[in-house]
Each structure stands twice: as structure tokens, then as C-alpha cells.
Design a protein that fits this description.
about 250 residues; four-stranded antiparallel beta sheet; six-stranded mixed beta sheet; 2 domains; globular; Rossmann fold; alpha/beta
Length: about 250
């Protein structure tokens, strides 16, 4: 993929915490509307990569371009306004607000919508995530599955071109995770590019058309999902984790 084809194009990303190198000259690009899964053992640098792409962490070296513009020095709020949204591994709702109010904050600040346009995009996001009936519930009363739905709905309320998902299936039963698969497919079908970190490999493979495996801050393999999971280096990185059998 050339930089002209990519909605997001990161080159030479390096991130250090003191002497610990967590990302080591990572190149990563995604085309508009593409769905990419990221797998790897704990400590591989997966979440750090999402944090650098979203603007939560600045890289020590390298660059990030989004929609043809260099965003390397922009913070997470500005990148969100430009079309990069993300969910977190542990949902972070505004607990004292209703579900609808959570979305309205995202639409107003991240999406810069106001008035009827803000209401409309919130309702659309709630419908897509199956949360219309929960719109007036306080966010801190929701169960885990609905908090995960809220994470995605709030991201959608910013009208993103790219959504970054960090282990959205974590802590859910297989049936609950399957419900999220349907939502993520619907999001991607609307033309939103998806980057999804997930340890539950079999649900990931129901959505993504490309798989990236990371280990020790580097990309080991990048390509067709089942070919990547058969890669000897990928199997070696996963030894003892049981992921090769899940694949």
C-alpha cells in the first residue's frame, strides 16, 4: 500500500518509556474502509501502538499521517476531531450521565455537531449499537456488554473515518462477543476503517480481512489472516498462550 492509498500511514514509530522500547520503528498503514486485526502476546506493544496512533502518546520517533495530513504533533482531541476515534479496553463512560448524554458530549466535542445534527448522529449511533432502549439509563448502571456497546456508540457519535478498538471482546461470553461482531461489521460496512486489537482470535477473524501480529514492539507478520496465523514466527510468539489452537 502506498501512502496515497492509506487513510492512515505511520512510519518508523518508536515509543520508549525510560530505557524500555515498546515500539521499535513500526510501519503501519490502513486503507479507507479496511478492517485490520492486531494480535500478539501480552507486552507486544499493541495497545501502545493504538495510543500513539490516536494521539494519547507522542512517539519518540517516526510520523503519523491521517487523510493526507501530518498529525504527528496533534493531541488525541484534535485527532478525534479529524476523524480518529477509539474505544478502551476498560470502558470509560461518564458515569453520572445518561447513555444519550455520553454520546451527546462526544458528538459536540469530538464531532463538533450541535443542535438537531448532534441529536441525529447520537440516535443513529444508538440504533447501530442496539442501545435505543437504554438511551435514558445512567451509564454507571450498565452491565459490561452494554458498557462496551456504549464505548463504540460514543466513538461513532464523533463521525469517525477510522475507529480503533482495544480488546472490545475482553471479559464477555462468546455469545456476547458475537453481538459485538455484528456491530463492528455494520460499522465497517458504512465505510469506517477498523483497527481491532483482540485476544479472542476466532471472533476477530469473522471481521478483519488483514491481520497484523506484533511481538516485542515489532510487526512479525502482516497479511491474509489465516496465512498470518500459520506463520511459524507467529506460532512461536504465541507458544504457551494457546492462541495457535484458537486460530
Amino acid at each position: 500500500m502506498t501512502s496515497l492509498d492509506a487513510i492512515l500511514d505511520a512510519r518508523g514509530l518508536t515509543k520508549r518509556f525510560a530505557a524500555l522500547v515498546v515500539l521499535n520503528e513500526v510501519d503501519f498503514a490502513i486503507a479507507p474502509g479496511e478492517a485490520i486485526g492486531i494480535v500478539g502476546p501480552n507486552g507486544a506493544g499493541k495497545t501502545t501502538l493504538l495510543n500513539v496512533l490516536s494521539g494519547a502518546y507522542p512517539p519518540n520517533a517516526g510520523s503519523v499521517a491521517f487523510a493526507g495530513h501530518d498529525v504527528t504533533k496533534l493531541d488525541a482531541a484534535e485527532r478525534n476531531r479529524r476523524g480518529i476515534a477509539r474505544s478502551h479496553q476498560v470502558p470509560r463512560p461518564f458515569g453520572g450521565m445518561t447513555v444519550f448524554e455520553n454520546l451527546h458530549v462526544a458528538a459536540a466535542i469530538g464531532g463538533q455537531f450541535s443542535g438537531p445534527a448532534a441529536n441525529d448522529i447520537c440516535v443513529e449511533a444508538l440504533a447501530l449499537c442496539g442501545m435505543i432502549k437504554l438511551a435514558n439509563r445512567r451509564a454507571d448502571t450498565l452491565g459490561l456488554l452494554d458498557r462496551k456497546r456504549l464505548e463504540m456508540a460514543r466513538a461513532l457519535a464523533t463521525d469517525p473515518k477510522l475507529i480503533l478498538l482495544d480488546e472490545i471482546g475482553g471479559g464477555l461470553t462468546d455469545a456476547e462477543a458475537q453481538e459485538l461482531v455484528l456491530i463492528i461489521r455494520s460499522i465497517n460496512a458504512r465505510g469506517v476503517a477498523v483497527v481491532w486489537i483482540e485476544h479472542i482470535v476466532h471472533i476477530l477473524l469473522q471481521v478483519v480481512t488483514r491481520l497484523v501480529c506484533m511481538d516485542a514492539g515489532r510487526i512479525l507478520a502482516d497479511g491474509e489472516p489465516r496465512a498470518v496465523m500459520r506463520n511459524p514466527e507467529v506460532i512461536s510468539a504465541y507458544l504457551g498462550s494457546g492462541a495457535e489452537s484458537a486460530a
